[in-house]
Amino acid sequence: MLNSFALTTVARTKEFMGITVNTYDTVLERLINSATDYIEKYCGGRRFKRTSYIQETYDGNNSTSLSLRNFPVNTSTTVELERRESTLNEDNWQVIEGQDYFLYANEGVITYPTGFQRLPKAYRMTYTAGYDYDNITTFLSDVGMADLEWSCWELVKNTFNQKNQSGNIQSESIGNYSVTFANILNRNSDIKEKLELYQKVQLF
Q: Which pTM was predicted?
């Protein structure tokens, strides 16, 4: 089954690859899931599909800035930053008012002039982040991220072709393809350059 957060669909991948039969649909599903996981990890562990995160905890870093795990942040939905009121592991939180910090929504960075005290799991964030596609009526290319979907197609195509040349693509169990994908990136600077645009950038 294709993951709900996959970067593309089997049908669109087949169109890109020029495949017209259904023989390899299951294999392509697995490859798309694997490629999506790889791309997300390569880009810093971020989730590209728009998702809501409830009370996601963060360690304080003794800095005035904090990088969220996912971005861009959707500012039309709930955005709430909280801090633990004591240095103990107690479920006692205080909301930090929006006027007291600055949110760089596109980059997923919060700056808090008072500073994020260096304490474990001392802050938590409720927010929604990612790109608004559903792979049914709206795709990455519809929200200005066509190069991201293309990168997924290319990783799937290259891996599929390598396995197909070995003659056992149908019986191959698709597992962890991180090494294969990494080799493809090293050989294909176009894919690598596109994915590097989506890696986390430290503003401060």
A: 0.90
